[in-house]
Design a protein that fits this description.
two-stranded antiparallel ribbon; globular; mainly alpha; about 400 residues; 5 strands
């Protein structure tokens, strides 16, 4: 597929999502989200926005398969089937709210089927740590469940989840393109050259980014449509599954060891699990620390609450756009370790910088979040305009 055709495909994805989102915004009673005491919105809004994301996404994959070398191999088929199933699960939950435990059981079964049918039993973190067999399967299932649920946790403020997904999918698409030139020198594997697969999957991710952007136009504050569980489950699954696809997991195909540690690993590919971890980290950070604090406090982790960092910022008087700008700055800082992968720095240096930045970000998040909780409980909000101090 030529560059012009790929650009047209991305534009088509944006326009289709934009039109569907606009139509859904006219029918707020379709999968209605009725405001409650935890809501940031004041009127009924449809939470069917996931429809505007999955339709362009699957359409673009179909067009790529029809007009490009991207074949319906096992990974692509698994992506299509898994995305459709998890979207339907989210759609049912939007229509008929289900208890947390049945939802989790369904997600575990789906994740098991997906990793067993679509992924090799191998997980690699920058080639420094490599797991094979059932330990790799456990990590793969846990990672997909984490991505689905943590993404769902973050869908609580106008534009927030869509904004994070836009950055993640666009950056991942760029990383795949950067690996394309390197992989051209490698021999083909099977019927499809790895470089072609990377390039085509980058187009898939760019098309998904365009669909998210088309939806986001209607989702920014004041939101006229929400993505709902059907949208957040879909985005969490796609990003989680795709992150386990790259690079091709055949680093140590002949080893019988379940665990391999390679301190002298070569520089990793730009598009690897560690890179996706960095891109996903703002979501993991907020949701993970909130979950950890609630566990320490003896709270029910399945019960709805207003203690996420972005919720604390909003309750303290920050507008949704101010919060998005703040998170954009955090994303920019967290992207710095990613450049070590891009310029092919040794894996151990990448890992060291990653640990440093993530530890620093986690500490700052925890301290700022705790400070906001104490300020809200005492009703003394520093650096907040007087007119917004009664919002909580």
């Amino acid at each position: 597929m030529q560059l012009s055709s790929q650009v047209l495909l991305v534009l088509f994805s944006f326009m289709l999502s934009f039109i569907i989102s606009g139509l859904l915004a006219q029918f707020p009673r379709f999968l209605p989200d009725v405001p409650n005491e935890r809501s940031a919105h004041k009127s009924v809004v449809s939470r069917g926005g996931g429809i505007a994301i999955i339709l362009p996404f699957l359409t673009c994959i179909a067009l790529l398969v029809a007009f490009s070398p991207l074949q319906l191999g096992v990974p692509v088929v698994t992506l299509i089937i898994g995305s459709t199933i998890i979207w339907i699960v989210g759609l049912v939950d939007d229509a008929i709210s289900q208890p947390a435990l049945p939802r989790l059981v369904i997600q575990v079964v789906l994740a098991l089927l997906v990793v067993t049918g679509g992924l090799p039993a191998l997980w690699s973190a920058g080639d420094l740590f490599v797991l094979q067999g059932w330990p790799a399967r456990l990590v793969q299932v846990f990672w997909i469940l984490l991505c689905i649920n943590f993404f769902n946790f973050m869908d609580g403020l106008d534009g927030l989840a869509g904004f994070q997904a836009l950055i993640l999918t666009a950056a991942a698409g760029i990383l795949l393109l950067m690996d394309y030139e390197t992989l051209l020198a490698q021999p083909p594997r099977g019927d499809l050259h790895p470089a072609i697969f990377f390039k085509m999957m980058s187009t898939v991710l760019f098309s998904l980014s365009a669909a998210i952007l088309g939806f986001l136009v209607w989702n920014l504050a004041p939101a006229r449509i929400f993505m709902g569980d059907n949208g957040s489950y879909l985005l969490g699954f796609v990003t989680g599954y795709v992150s386990l696809l790259f690079p091709f997991a055949d680093v140590y195909p002949d080893s019988d060891s379940k665990f391999i540690f390679n301190w002298n690993a070569h520089p990793p590919a730009a598009a690897g699990w560690i890179s996706f971890l960095i891109l996903f980290f703002p979501i993991l950070l907020d949701a993970g620390l909130t979950l950890f604090k609630r566990l320490l406090g003896g709270h029910n982790i399945f019960q709805a609450h207003r203690n996420h960092f972005f919720q604390l910022l909003h309750r303290s008087g920050r507008s949704p756009m101010e919060i998005l700008f703040f998170l954009a700055c955090i994303n920019g800082v967290l992207l710095l370790p990613l450049w070590t992968s891009v310029i092919r720095v040794e894996s151990r240096i990448t890992l060291g910088l990653l640990i440093f930045f993530l530890t620093l970000a986690s500490s700052l998040y925890f301290i700022l979040g705790r400070s906001l909780e104490m300020a809200l409980s005492s009703k003394v909000l520093p650096f907040v305009p007087r007119r917004t101090r009664s919002l909580h």
